[in-house]
Amino acid sequence: xxxxxxxxxxxxxxxxxxxxxxxxxxxxxxxxxxxxxxxxxxxxxxxxxxxxxxxxxxxxxxxxxxxxxxxxxxxxxxxxxxxxxxxxxxxxxxxxxxxxxxxxxxxxxxxxxxxxxxxxxxxxxxxxxxxxxxxxxxxxxxxxxxxxxxxxxxxxxxxxxxxxxxxxxxxxxxxxxxxxxxxxxxxxxxxxxxxxxxxxxxxxxxxxxxxxxxxxxxxxx
Length: 221
What we know:
This protein is mostly beta strands. The protein has helices at residues 8-14, 56-59, 76-82, 133-137, and strands at residues 19-31, 37-45, 48-54, 63-70, 88-95, 107-108, 118-124, 129-131, 175-177, 181-193, 198-202, 212-217. The longest helix is centred in the N-terminal third of the chain and has 7 residues, at 8-14.
């Protein structure tokens, strides 16, 4: 119970701790009450623990740091930072407006979400290595006729010789593909089960199985 007499998770929901850390389990499907098949992603969401509370006075902004997952080994700075709260593998921050009722050691579970909530899910996309423009940017490639023998997957011209006389910044070319932070926006929560730390959201989310996910309240809904 918090200082106001409300349960901690209710306080966290009131004070807009709108996020939790989780691990992607995989995709499956479920049925709505109308019998419609819905594709969903199963996420092991939490439980997380508040490991640090940052304030405007001491850090320049208000935020809550959550810890998730078990780490087998921590170095000395990490042990000193966590102060016997636990050995967490992942630490992430969530910006807040009001941190008055939040203290280190409080637990955050999936019950901060309810069925029907709209969330954003942040993850790291699968790495594809060095990829060409056809795979990376969906270029159509060069012509397949008129004597073209090695232009089928080439990018073509990347800029004029006289004007502009350079390659524009941001020009789409071959390069590293994937392994980037991606946000899937406005996904609907189908099920939030605190007993199993299970969260089902409609649709696909970024990343591979067992990848770290950040689930938070949708900003642009």
